[in-house]
Fold this sequence. Notes:
The complex is a heterodimer of chains A (about 180) and B (about 230).
Chain A: H1 16-20, H2 22-25, E1 45-53, E2 64-69, E3 87-91, E4 99-104, E5 115-121, E6 129-135, H3 152-155, E7 159-162, E8 167-172, E9 182-183
Parallel strand pairs in A: 1-8, 6-7
Antiparallel strand pairs in A: 1-4, 2-3, 2-5, 5-6, 7-8
Chain B: E1 2-3, H1 22-25, E2 32-33, H2 38-41, E3 71-80, E4 90-95, E5 120-124, E6 130-136, E7 141-143, E8 149-151, E9 154-159, E10 168-174, H3 192-196, E11 199-202, E12 213-216, E13 219-221, E14 224-225
Parallel strand pairs in B: 3-12, 3-13, 10-11
Antiparallel strand pairs in B: 1-14, 3-6, 4-5, 4-9, 7-8, 9-10, 11-12
Amino acid sequence: MTELPETPSQTAGPFVHIGLTPGAARTGLLDLGTAIAAEGVPGTRIRIAGTILDGTGTPLRDALVEAWHADAQGRYPPDAADGFRGWGRAACDPESGEWVFDTIKPGAVGDQAPHVALWIVARGINQGLHTRLYFEDEDNSSDPVLNLIEQPVRRDSLIARRTDEAYRLTIRLQGDGETVFFDP
Amino acid sequence: MTFRPRDPARHPPALAPAYKTSVTRSPRLPLLSLDPGPTERTGPVFRPDDLGQMDADLLSNYGEAAPIGERILIHGRVLDGNGRPVPHTLVEVWQANASGRYRHVRDGYVGALDPDFGGCGRCLTGEDGTYAFRTVKPGAYPWRNTRNDWRPAHIHFSVFGTAFLQRLVTQCYFEGDPLIARCPIAQSIGDPVAVDALVANLDMGQTRPFDMIAYRFDIVLRGRRATWFET
């Protein structure tokens, strides 16, 4: 079988919004990834939100985040509920650095606890970073991916805290409390 | 059937000190290897009606008149690591205009904005994995890194594939540009053969006489590992 080497990654740079959130950047096209789950898709409506901190603790204000998750029954498109796209894209707020997704809460996927895959690109990030968001009000104790993490304290870096208005997760790119990033 | 692991030697390391911004934005701990499960082996699906009619034509999808600059056709194929075309996948591009200026609130470069150029395009690949964009060749521009760094002319590419683990963002450079060898971002990739894979080559065969010069840039996403059970 032919084996072709993968095209190398490069940073998305500071102006990623021109291409990937062109509606917000007003470069002539409409934004994609604004509705992960259309109105009427079965499931509990939730908001997930957070910030991404660099090694100095400063929020990234120019990053882009994509979310990919299963529907309430744990199914991915094309096998998921009608109107469920599963994929969202959000630019960090240019002032606060906050990213936000409005969606439905995913179901467990096989033996994995409910989770949202997150993928982060930005200036200074040479290869998109894969991580996950889990929910503090779910039973995550037997999740096989969380349990791959050798140090239990690091598992907490993936668990979003429930607040009145959102599940919140702070992603730390390096240093104390560094988020677990995956090489899938 | 599973995906072959990513070859780190093909990619820039997270920490590439000559590209200064990477110093505070790179994880210090190793990535956790993960056997791809349903979450990683699936990915978003896009449909023709997600896109606008003119989305792939940067010569006309923003302003009233034609933008200023060298008219080019940038085209190629999206393949997987097994050499198979990846059909119906989303390819997105963004770039500076011919002056090296981006249409972005935070780009303060003195190079002129072009009222007829937005710098954003996208399309779905055809059945045979092909994509094509009409655009202008972007200009080189200076950036704050050392006191005198210039980016080679480049177009940013974003590609999905069929699995979220294939997600790729990269940049395409142009054959013959002397700035490639001097660019801390391009050279963050240690392997010169891998850097060459990001260089679009002049493609006289696809050049449109009296209209556009063509450049070819093929993109390879991660492939699957052959197994005894594969048919």
